[in-house]
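Notebook entry, structure prediction.
Reason for the run: the old model in the group folder had no record of what sequence produced it. Starting over properly, with the input documented here first.
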Amino acid sequence: MENLLDVQQLSTAFKLPSGWYPATTDISFSLKPDETLAVVGESGCGKSVTAFSLMGLLPEHGSRIDSGTALFKGEDLLTMPREQLRKIRGKAMTMIFQEPMTSLNPVFTVGSQIAEAIFYHMDVSKAEAKNRALELMDLVKIPAPSSRYNDFPHHLSGGMCQRIMIAMSLACEPDLVFADEPTTALDVTIQAQMLYLLNELKRKKQMSMVFITHDLGVVAHVADRVAVMYAGTIVETAPVKELYKQPAHPYTQALLRSIPRLDRDNANLQPIQGMVPAIDHMPDGCRFFERCPRHRECRPDILPELRQLNQNPDHLVRCFLFE
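New structure, fully documented this time:
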C-alpha cells in the first residue's frame, strides 16, 4: 500500500547563544493510510519537535530544517510554499496539542473555534459551519452541545477542553492527525475515555495518526507500529506486538522495565539512571552510551545506523549490539 506520509533523514536544529545545535537527527519513518504510529520516549527526546517540523509550526527565528524530505500524498512538506502549507494544515493534516487549557484561545467561545476551521477550509456559510461544529461536539461526547457552543474554555474541565481540541482536529475530516500527548494532562478515567474516543473516531473516519507519548502503557491500546526515540534519533521501530514481545534496543528494554504492572511487585521497578542529554551536550556517537548497561560492548564515537533486526524489514534498531 502506498504511504500517506514518508519522512526520510529529517534533521532539525535550534539556535542557542553559542550556536546552532541539532534537536533531531536522521528521522525516518513512513505511515500508511488508516495506520497509527506511536512515537515514544522520554521528555526531551524530540518527539514534539518532529511533529512541529512536519506541520511547519516551528518558530521562523531560532529554528531551521537542516536536511530531509517529508512526502505527504507525494508532496514535500519541508519545501512547500507557506501559503500552500496553510491550505493543507488544518484540513488534510491536523494536530491535537498537548495542553488543551493553553492551546484554546481564551477570548473566543469553544464552538466558534471549531467552526472557524470549517469556515476557513471548506466552502460553507457561517451557519453551516456552526451546524457542523455542533455535530462534532456531539460526536466527541460533549453534553448539550447547543448550550456549550457559546462557553469559553475556562468554563470547561480539562477533559472537556481536550474533547474540543479533538473536535477541532476532525473538523475537516483530515487524512492525518498528529496527537501530541493528548492524554498527559488528564486523570486515569478521562484518559481511558479519550483513548477509546480516538480509536472509535479513527475507525469511523479511516484516518492515519501519529500518536506522541512517553507512556508505553498507552501505546498498546492505540498503535499499529511504534517508533522509539531517544535524544533526537529513532533507536527502534517495530509493529506494536513485536516490540513488546522482542524489544531489541537497550533503551526500549529499559522503558518497558520501568512500567508499573499488576502482575509484579512495584519494588522491582527499574528506573533508568541519568538524564537525556541536552542538545548542546549531545554525544558524537551512540546517544544512549552513558546510560546503557551494555555500553562496554559499544563505541562512543560513532552514531550507529538504523538496521534490520534478523533480516526483518519491519523491525529496525539503531545499536552496535546488532551490527
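Summary: The mean pLDDT is 89.
The old model has been moved to the deprecated folder.
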